[in-house]
Amino acid sequence: xxxxxxxxxxxxxxxxxxxxxxxxxxxxxxxxxxxxxxxxxxxxxxxxxxxxxxxxxxxxxxxxxxxxxxxxxxxxxxxxxxxxxxxxxxxxxxxxxxxxxxxxxxxxxxxxxxxxxxxxxxxxxxxxxxxxxxxxxxxxxxxxxxxxxxxxxxxxxxxxxxxxxxxxxxxxxxxxxxxxxxxxxxxxxxxxxxxxxxxxxxxxxxxxxxxxxxxxxxxxxxxxxxxxxxxxxxxxxxxxxxxxxxxxxxxxxxxxxxxxxxxxxxxxxxxxxxxxxxxxxxxxxxxxxxxxxxxxxxxxxxxxxxxxxxxxxxxxxxxxxxxx
Length: 324
Prior knowledge:
Shape: globular
CATH topology of the largest domain: Quinone Oxidoreductase, Chain A, domain 1
Mean pLDDT: 94
Structural class: alpha/beta
Low-confidence stretches: none
CATH superfamily of the largest domain: Medium-chain alcohol dehydrogenases, catalytic domain
Radius of gyration: 20 Å
CATH architecture of the largest domain: Alpha-Beta Complex
Oligomer: single chain
Largest sheet: 7 strands, mixed
CATH class of the largest domain: Alpha Beta
Number of helices: 8
């Protein structure tokens, strides 16, 4: 074991969670305007297992090129261990961020490099598991709502998949932004949890079609997508907006021409931003937004974390513990 190496989880072939292997690899070196972060915790996100499977649910011509071996992960929380030329960070500062996304984050490791602008100072009120759970899911909800959708105060919003990583944060941001009514859609076991987060109404999708009980909403924020996504469209009034977070079959031509709906997702992609994360951190530190962490796995058990993630029905986020 040498001082310029580290433990990391890599994959040398695409496939099931078992391709994730913990091994010694060279420690990265920060470049100009970058910090080397000693990672204490790493977030587990859908793009991590999509990449592990070589994005097999996306048409081949649209898949981003991936070079092996690959260290997954883009959500990190830790302390600055070293800085590159011109970096504004100082050694020892607590930081977190969605790093190098879209791109190669390499967060499932003891050390990771990140451009200065991708990192935010981790507030003292937040621990590292929370710091690792927040960036991708939080920035997805925050950027989508504040920079793309900009919903008017007083609207009725439906959040599908409201207990998940993006969903439970979007629900709280809608409440904080002045939504008149936020309706949470999830399975029945999440009812109390979502009411605690501020949902005005809860709908158990396992009990029957959501559209049987919800109508005339202004906004549908759908964090689930999938082949049956179009079944939720009747919850919207004519002129309502659909905000898909993931790919889904919404029968768009029918939805726009016959139902009069608009879609707010074209050319949108969450991006790394320490500035946006700092604004989001302030809401979390103030208690306005709560970050739910379902479970914390050791770095060596990254495969187990992926197996749990792919089962779905998560409440909040999964995190990898890397170091104390």
